[in-house]
Every structure is written in structure tokens, then in C-alpha cells.
Amino acid sequence: MSTPWQRYAEEHARTADTMASVLLFASFLFGSEITMSSDERPHEVGITIALAAVGCGALLWQRSRPRTVVAVSAVCTAAASGLGHLPTPLLLGGLMLALYRLAVDTDRPTARRYYFAGLALVVGAATVFGPGAVPWPLKTISPAAWLLLPIVAGNAVRLQGAYLEAVQARAEYAERSREEEARHRVGEERIRIARELHDVVAHHLALANAQAGTAAHLSRTHPDQVHRILGDLAGTTASALRELKATVGLLRQTDDPDLPLAPSPGLAQLPELTEACETAGLTVHVSVEGTPRPMTAGVDLTAYRIVQEALTNVTKHAAAEAAYVRLGWSPDRLTLTVTDDGTATAPAATATATAPGSGFGLIGMRERAQSVGGAFAAGHRDGGGFEVTTRLPLYPSATETEPEERTP
To answer: Domain range spanning residue 15?
Structure first.
């Protein structure tokens, strides 16, 4: 947290540098008057003022050319020491500020090199050309200590700035990671909803199309059956509208009072599914092997959607009169098998039935099975027809993503 004067110095750098130069110029002149005795006071006043002006005036460029400013300040301070002025903190002020700025703006080795070079100039000039009566610690130890102080302070400020930048960079990286994760989850949710919409629309429209075709075919020969088929057609479209409303409701806010609260469909709705297929002219035989066992809502929904999509493909793409659904229960796994004894007749069937594993319907079933840790296979049977086999674990791992309970 910066103080008001630090904020002012950052916002008005040129003004702050000018004020520092003026103050250090006055400090330089005041320090040049300090001597051990009046007999040793130097008489080169003009040269001293010129050195003070050059050394402190160079501080105006300390932010843009810190190395040059340190060199100029060191030469001027060393020349003043050579004239007989004591290297006190007042005389060293300009060089100290230059070293501080160098330590802040550069790295530690650079600041160390310039420190030793400036110290050698000042101490050497004071020792060789300075008054002999001045104690040697004032010529050596005192300048070394005072010039080391801005180096230490500058390194501390630079390290603190680097630490704050690292913290800010980590915070920005974490924010970007959260945004990317959010976008990734949004993408997955869109794919899941799109898959649900595909299953709902494809299944009900295929049944509605088959029922409408059957009604049109029987309208001349068996008009008494048309009324029943049209009633089934109305039920199919109503069911499609309900499931579409429930699926699209996922896009609403969670506090929307109109959000559907119906549970997810599962294998418990399998009789209704087979009955709807029978109204479209497809007889579905369901067999169960083993003892039914409890399973998670995600696996239950996945199993239902796979059976639904498989029967939809049979209705749309296979010239079959019957389909067979077999549920094989084991202690930890459910095996679903959907077969038919027909042949692909529709042109669109070439993408779904002729090439095992191809077509959007089969891709969707495979993705659903894999999403809960299951396995999927589809292909032609040797005796004719098509077969879809899915193996689903009853208790998928916790890392697997399961659809929400609101999902139809």
C-alpha cells in the first residue's frame, strides 16, 4: 500500500525528480562546507558549484538512463572528494539516489558492479587527493556504508515489486483458468442438452411420421382403425412437447417457477416406450435376464435413451416388423441388447445401419455409454438385421459426469 507522497511521485515523476535534484544540489553545497578544520576548507567554490550542478542535474534522467546518471554522479562526487570535501551523506546524496534508482530498475549484479565502481572512485579520490588529516574511516568505511544503503533499499523495493507482479500474475492466471473452466462446462452442458433434444425430437418425430403414414395407408382399407391411430399420434406429439419443454427448461434460471420438476425418464418408462413404438407398426419384445438391481439416475437415464434411440433407428431405417430388447442384469453391470430382423431400406439408413459405428444416432449412443464408463457396439447380425449392444456399470465412478435429475 503506497503513501500519498509515493502516489504523487509516481503520477508526477518529472516534478518529483526536479524537486529531488534541487534539494540534493543544496545538500551538496551545504556538505561541501563541512571540513575537519577551517584551514583545510577548499577554495575552488566555482568548481564545486559546477560539480554539484552537473551531478544533481543528471538526476533528471535517472529513470530513463540510470547507468549513465550513476556514472556522472560518481565522477562528480569523486572530483569533489578530490578537491578536499569530506564524503559525507550530504555530499553523497546525488550518488545515493542514482544508485537507488539503478537498483530498482536493473538487476542485482548490475547494481553491485556500479556500486563498487562508484565506491572505488570516491574512496580513491578522497584517499589520494583529500586532506591527510581526515581519519581514514571517514574516507573509506563511511562512504561504503552510505552508498550501500540505497543498494539494499533499491533491491528490496525491486523484489517487492516483483513479488506483487507475481501475485497479480497468479491471480490473473487463476481468473483465466476459472473462465476457461466455466466456458468448458458451458460447452459440455450445451452438448448434453443438444443430445437430449436430438433424442427427444428424433424419437417422437419418427413415431409421429410412422403413425401418420400408417393412418394414411389404412384410411381406405380400414377406416375404423384410423381414429385410434390418430389418437395415438396426438399422444405422441403431446409427449414430445412435454419433453421438449422440460429440456428447454434447463436453459432457464434455477429459480424460475415454471421450470419443470419432473424426474428423469428411465427404464421404468420402458413399457410406455414400447407401446408408442407398437402404435407405429413396430412390435417390441422385451426380455429380462437376471435380477434387476438399483442403479444411479445417470445410468438409468442413459439406458433409457440408448434403448429409445435404437428403437427410433429401427422405426426409421429398417424394414422390420419386430424389435427385441434384452436386459441382462449382473451384480455390477447392465447389458442392453436391441436387435431387429429387418433390412435397411431408406436412403438415410446408409449412414446409420450400413456402417457400424457411424451416424449421429450411433455416435450419440456411444457418447452416452462412455459418459458413465460403459461400452457400446453396433453392427449387422450374421442372420440379418442390426444389433446394438451396450454395457453399463450400475455404479459409475464419482469422476464420471452424470446428467442432472431435471434432465428429461
So the answer is: 4-139
The candidate with the shortest Cα–Cα distance to 267, out of 212, 317, 321, 307, is 307
* DSSP three-state, residue 391: strand
197: in domain: yes
pLDDT in tens, 346-386: 333 333 434 444 456 788 788 888 888 889 998 888 877 88
Residue 129, helix vs strand vs coil: helix
Distance CA 340, CA 379 (A): 11
The Cα 138–Cα 89 span in angstroms is 11
What is the DSSP code (8-state) at residue 402?
Answer: -
What angle, rounded to 10 degrees, do the helices at 89-105 and 66-82 form? 160
Report the share of the chain in percent with pLDDT over 90.
9
Query: Residue 343 CB: number of other CB atoms within 10 A?
Result: 15
93, with CB counted inside 10 A (0-12, 13-18, 19+), is buried
98-107, 217-226, 247-256: segment of lowest average pLDDT = 247-256
CA distances from 380 to 121, 383, 389 (A): 93, 8, 11
Strand partners, 337: 326, 389
Which three cell numbers mark 292? 434387476
User: To the nearest whole number, what is the mean pLDDT of the chain?
Assistant: 77
Choose one of 84, 112, 139: the last residue of a domain. 139
Q: Degrees (nearest 5) of the Cα angle 383, 291, 200?
A: 65
Tell which residue, 336, 318, 338, 322, has the closest CA to residue 206: 318
What CATH number does residue 215 fall under?
3.30.565.10
